[in-house]
Amino acid sequence: MNLLQKIESLREQQIASIALMRDNYRALNSIEHRDFHLGPMKVRAIYNPARVISSAAKVDAASISARPCFLCPQNRLEGQRSVPFLDGRYDILVNPYPIFDHHYVIAAHSHVRQKIGRRITDMWQLASELEGYTVFYNGPRCGASAPDHMHFQAVASTELSLWNALDATSPEPVGQTGNAVMSKANGLPISVFVIDSTTAEDAYKLANLLYPTFPIDSNEEWEPRFNMLATSTEQGVRIAVIPRPRHRPSFYTYDPTDEKGMTVSPASIDAAGVLVLPRRIDFNRLDEKTILSIYNETCVMPC
Q1: Residue 276 belongs to what H/E stretch?
Q2: 252-290 confidence digits (pLDDT tens)
Q3: Rounded CA gap, 110 and 122, in Å?
Q4: Going by C-beta distance under 8 Å and a sequence separation of 6 or more, which residues neighbour residue 226?
Q5: Where do the domains of the chain lie, and which CATH numbers do they carry?
Q6: What ranges in 68-183 are assigned the alpha helix state H?
């Protein structure tokens, strides 16, 4: 079996054998959604109460040090299995708290902090092998609920409107390195840089020139804030890089009784066109103006 067949087989086995996964994947059948259009980009808001575990995750240093790392092998769910990737350097797991019907976590086998660096080449390789999937990276201050443990995630590319929006707007080329071309998207509600490449190494070289130019706080611990998504194409792999000025909007709240704030914690999925809302009150009152406010505060606006 190839890698794609192995993870699909794992998904079937895990949903059948682990009650939590079975319940959470079945619950996706009744997920409510609302669609909005911001120019060429469709934004789908989904109400998913189970995702509060991520949306309200405490990612400060004290909270992280006080809990066991749920991505380390010894702390995973009982019965949770994995498919090895890149000679066992990564474990591909079925996400027990899914956003979509096919949702995987690709965790480094060793406990190392969330920092992409040269792992862009690993991301490129993973995207090239998982045809039809988008592999994404949430920066340690851009949506990662486990910033202390390096990991990617993967979902079906058809779930994300970003790719169709990029095709519709024809990104403008702004640079090239070897077999990798960098473009900047036009007409979207957020700034998106696109890297199209036929080799993992050239993608890394071009990305390594890009993201160090993003603003970084003086007290930032690891790297500039950005989200990154990758999907295979006929020519190679397309990578979208989304700079982020902040993690959560100013009106974010994790207090379930707070009716003025909103429990929304944008990560790659949200920036790619799917806003995840674990509270019904937030889902019901969402409108285009609020979506733009979320993007205005957490993403870089296009020039």
Answers
A1: strand 274-277
A2: 998 888 888 999 999 999 999 999 999 999 999 999 999
A3: 15
A4: 139, 142, 211, 214, 241, 242, 243, 244
A5: 3-164+197-298 (3.30.428.70)
A6: 120-129, 162-169
